[in-house]
Amino acid sequence: MSHEAYPLVDLVKQLDQASGYEFQTLLKTLTSPVYINEQILKSELGLLNTKILKLLRSSDDFDVWKGCHTAVVICSYNPLVLCSHASQLLAAIYSKLEQKVGYYQSTISTMQGKTLLETLISSLSIIMDLMRNKPTVSREGLVPKLRAIIPTLITLSQDEPQLCLPVLQTLLKRNSTTFKPFVNKYRIVLSNLIVNHYHSFDKDTQTLICNNFAYLHLIKIQNAQSKGTDIDEAQSHHKSFSDDTWTSGLLNILYQFKPIIELCGELLDFKQDQDLQRIIESLPHSNVKSDDSDDDNESVHDFLPVLKLDMNAPLTLWQISNRLNLLVGLMNSFISLPTPFAIRIPIGGINAICETLLSMTTKYIPLKRELRRDQELNSIIHDIFPQIQLNGIHLWTNLIRSCNKCCIPLGSKILSNVELFIPLKNKSNLIDFERCYALKNEFGDVFKLINIVLPLMGHQFNEIDPIIKLINVALYLSEDKSLIDSIFNQQKELQSAAMKNNNNNSNNKKKNKRDQNVGALSDLYTHPEEFVITTSKEWYDETNQFFIMILNSLVLSSTQQTRIIKYSVSIALYLKSINDEIPRSFIDLIRCIVLHPGYEKVSILPIAVNILKDVNDEMFDLLCHPRLPTNMVYRVRNNNANVVEDEDEDEDDGRMIVDEETAANEADNVSLSLKMTEEKEKVVIMPHVERKVDIIEDETKIFKKRDIEDVQPEIEETTKRVKIVKEEEKVNNEVPVQVIDEKAFTSNIEDKDNGEDDNDDDSEFEIPVIDISDDEDEEE
Amino acid sequence: MDEQLIFTTTNAGTITNIHSGEQSNLRQCTVGSPNSAVQVGHKYLFVAQEGKALINVYNISGPHKRESVEQRLPLPEIVKCLEVVENNNSNAAVADFDLPYLLLASTESGKLYIWELNSGILLNVKPMAHYQSITKIKSIMNGKYVITSGNDARVIIWQTMDLIEQDDPKPICILHDHSLPVTDFQVSLTHGDFLSNSGLILFTASQDSTVRCYDLRLIATENNKKKRRKVNNSTDTEGQQQQQQNDDLSQPRLIATFSLPFPINSLCLDPADRAMYLGTNNGCFALDLFYKLKNNRIVNLLQLNNEDNKSKIYSLVERIPHGIPQDSNSLYAIGQLLCDKVSSSHVTALKSSMDGTLLAIGDSMGKISITEIYSKQILKTLQPLTSGQISNGPVMNLLIETQFNDTKNQLIGIISSSSKSSSGSSTQNSMKIPTLQRIIYDKEKLGQLHDIWFQTGEPIGSNNMTMQSKIITPLNDFNGYLNNIKSQELIFQKQQEQGSTEIKTIREQTITSINPKQDTTTANKDKEIAELKKNIATLTSAYKDLRDMHEKLYEEHEKLAK
């Protein structure tokens, strides 16, 4: 094996000059297990190591870059190199990184420099990960280096949080003790990032910052501990929990919510709602504030600046929702991050906060009297409240994601509170769909929350109203919306206005002016379809998930059911026409509708099968052609050789059963189905009786169809039965009762059975009977 | 892979395996009633102690399972049955400290206690959930519902949410078809996302010698809800309302009743609902639920007649192996089904194995016989490892769990990482289960933090690598890593090209800047031009001469040719 390997010496020589494809091939060669050989450790691998070190130390950026990648690859795939040389390589990479960080400004002035910086950090992180968990290597190689690496990374994280924070996060979590001396420095850096730049980072970086901030609390702060013992001496004999620092950090964030919610009291008239006032009063808040040790505490924890709101500058109000956003982000990190020990999560407190956040709406609480005049202020306030509520929704979502079932008690509260988020028209109970549309993205989050709450709950809800409302909203928002509807409407108004009273020249002038300043608007009129917002696939997935869950647990009223059916079928067809493929969630939804027809009398099975005919859906296949017969008795094996013999026996048996228990309905049914199968077989044997074949096959089909419907939840059946009885009452005198039809039908079959060589006349006679029963099925 | 089997008799608890010989004894384990032991996750076993208000917690995880009691949970009362509602989080790996959500316990008087295990908070107590002692508690459908059965011959289905939220929870429905204590019940294991409430079948076994199966139709209608609210408001009319609800869509429907000549002690289902096994004082009987008639016909016993929707009543008759052949068809016609006798011991507990071929039969003597169902042969008999005592009492609890043990690595001596971490944590992480409280938690009181102890597991797929940071490591995805290299190298190459052009321009500039006197260069150029012009002139004159010569010679040549 070894002689087939590409000699390392040559490889090392080539490494100097290699670039492009050559370099990649060299890296690939290095992954070969051939080089995991202790014999070549000293000689060839040593050589490779020196070469990599040389590359890493060179002043040419490209060489350093090559060195980094080679080091990472060889360390990943070669345990020998990892154990013997990794610490050297790590040191080399680190020292290069330090250089680059030292001259940060000049480094990032070129793309090249930026890329190199990125590579250095990622290689550093990968090699550190590889060294971790291996006792000797990490003790000898990693930990001593970390003392130097951490401060550098912290410095760099001020400028490049995206690059450094992930690495620091793992370091904080995995090497908390080594990190300890740098905690305060890091805290300052993070606080700075949070206070000054939080809202200018993208979502991922924001989460990273929050996660890092939370992980700071893995390390015990001496300060807090000593203080803790001061305060409750009575409790000092208790063992301190390992999560003390974490909890104090978490509570600190939790306590921040209350003052901000109280700020909303400046906008809303809380006095109108005594209950809410009491709830707000009882929200978790810091007890320490009243103490003297306030200043001390503040220096450690209260890094967030005071909000500056000014009613005269309404835009400053947005700070409320921004701050809440930050707090929810931090909270999320505290409750959802994996920790090495169990932590305490105050679900009650968090829930209370979410509830109050969602009550921040003008729906039930009026605005303060003095604010009602100001138009600008009012419009901003109306925009802000949904955002405040949304924060509550996010917080709940995160809480349930991490604690799952522990949130079951919150379920019905969440449902009823989410109802508060649905905007209503002024002074009525109707949903304001226009405003819903403006909040479409937010509603996406609402459905996310609902979709994780519902699986926790059973099928009997305390309140159904919120669900019905949400169904309406979901259906409305799933329609594509044209952006220029309003323009057309305005145009109409304008025209009508013009028709009525305006023949002035000013109108023409205006038009001319507009044409000069703005580009042509003709596109709006000629290609209105280009200005439509299409609904995203994610939205459909969420709403479909919601519908599926509702249909599974609730029999909806007919209107709702029909609307959902219409939605699913039409959108599925539309998407199919565009993409030639129906999204998974629609297939699932259609399946679900077929299985849960609710009060509907007509099954959408044919529609569903028609739509999904290209999808090869097994479930519909099974519904249409049941493999396990749905009737009481069925055959297992069909051995061709014995067919004729078996048949005779079968018949005898069948007759016997018929003879014995014609009275018993059940047995009737048994024999009936037995005969059905027999008939079928006979058909196979004697294909020349063509006429008969057709009709009998028809019969079986009808039976099958009926069976299919019976497989579905029995709701339909019972309704059917009720109907039949009613009909019976109505038509009592005129027509021989329709229910009998089936029995008549069975006797027909028996007749036919007895006279095997019957003419076609017999079957003709049967046709009307079949038709009636068929009609029955469809009409009812 | 092996199947761990835990069983307790009245005075001994044993952990063993079906396929291997390992066996260990749980210390200080006394059990007073059936279904009083419950396995909690993969780590713990809770056993309610006889005559003591105490639950013993045993650590049964990993290769280092301990026989001694890990923790004792004191209770306000002596309890009989235990059950947990698991808190399975699908998007994270199992954390070290991973407790189920609820602990349900019942007392002699039919009281139902509900604790939240993560905090120890007593969420609710339902007095008189049953009028007599509860015989079994089971959470089904991912913990959404809880079913209890009692000596009062009733089976009650609760919604977990209601048990927690409401002060006086009302059941979803009560089944009172049995006439004597219900001893055991089982719910079919399969339910899908879409068929979630259509295939769920409940089997109940009772001392009145019958087994009943119900189609649990867990779906709500709007009307039903209103009715239910009414019921909640006026408890007096509960009976009437109940009557009305009987016809409702959302009530369980009796599919079939099977009667035996003997009272039934325990019931167990084939994992795929193909057969049902019944334990009686006179032996264990097996009934195929897809019942075979003559001539290759099969009856699906769990299906309602399409015509009248009435449930059927079958009586079970023992098949006599070597006697007169019984005609299954004629027996079926009169409502009798043949069933096989698997064992003739006094059965107190039953469980089927993972593949449905073996049956663990616990008897009144405290023995477990592992029996192959098809051949009815006893493969193995397991007994508690106790000394001195002749009888250990009847088998009270029988739990089987399929386990994965990494045999491949065990041979080499490497313990798989999962078992290592769990065993390591048992010594390292001294986190105890919070004490169970005695006072009902007041939900209405404002301003409570309601702390729960909780540990989030590592997100799945992190695998100790920095997956979160989106750094592609060569070990996880080498091609991705190479791709990354390609894109990075492109930047370097571009930079190099750009760099070289820059340098060129600089050079030219430097050249120009080095020569300060531009005039001289222009003078030089003029000179050169002059020289070149001279050259051209001389060359053109020379060419003309040659041309003339050539023309003359050509003319001469033509003359000569003529």
UniProtKB/TrEMBL annotation, chain A:
GO terms for molecular function: chromatin binding. It is found in: Nucleus. Residues 753-765 have a biased composition (Acidic residues). Residues 11-200 form the Pre-rRNA-processing protein RIX1 N-terminal domain. Residues 742-752 have a biased composition (Basic and acidic residues). Keywords: Coiled coil, Nucleus. One of its GO terms (cellular component) is cytosol. GO terms for biological process: pre-replicative complex assembly involved in nuclear cell cycle DNA replication; regulation of DNA-templated DNA replication initiation; ribosomal large subunit assembly; rRNA processing. The keyword Glycosyltransferase does not apply. The keyword Transmembrane does not apply. Residues 489-516 form a coiled coil. Its main location: nucleus. Belongs to the RIX1/PELP1 family. Component of the RIX1 complex required for processing of ITS2 sequences from 35S pre-rRNA and the nucleoplasmic transit of the pre-60S ribosomal subunits. Regulates pre-60S association of the critical remodeling factor MDN1. This is Pre-rRNA-processing protein RIX1. It comes from Naumovozyma dairenensis (strain ATCC 10597 / BCRC 20456 / CBS 421 / NBRC 0211 / NRRL Y-12639) (Saccharomyces dairenensis).
UniProtKB/TrEMBL annotation, chain B:
PROSITE patterns: WD_REPEATS_2. Keywords: Coiled coil, Nucleus, Repeat, rRNA processing, WD repeat. One of its GO terms (biological process) is regulation of DNA-templated DNA replication initiation. One of its GO terms (cellular component) is rixosome complex. The keyword Nucleus applies. WD repeats lie at residues 127-159. Pfam families: WD40 (PF00400). The keyword Transmembrane does not apply. Residues 529-556 form a coiled coil. One of its GO terms (molecular function) is chromatin binding. InterPro entries: WD40/YVTN_repeat-like_dom_sf, WD40_repeat_dom_sf, WD40_rpt, WDR18/Ipi3/RID3. Belongs to the WD repeat IPI3/WDR18 family. Component of the RIX1 complex required for processing of ITS2 sequences from 35S pre-rRNA. This is Pre-rRNA-processing protein IPI3. It comes from Naumovozyma dairenensis (strain ATCC 10597 / BCRC 20456 / CBS 421 / NBRC 0211 / NRRL Y-12639). The lineage of its organism: Eukaryota, Fungi, Dikarya, Ascomycota, Saccharomycotina.
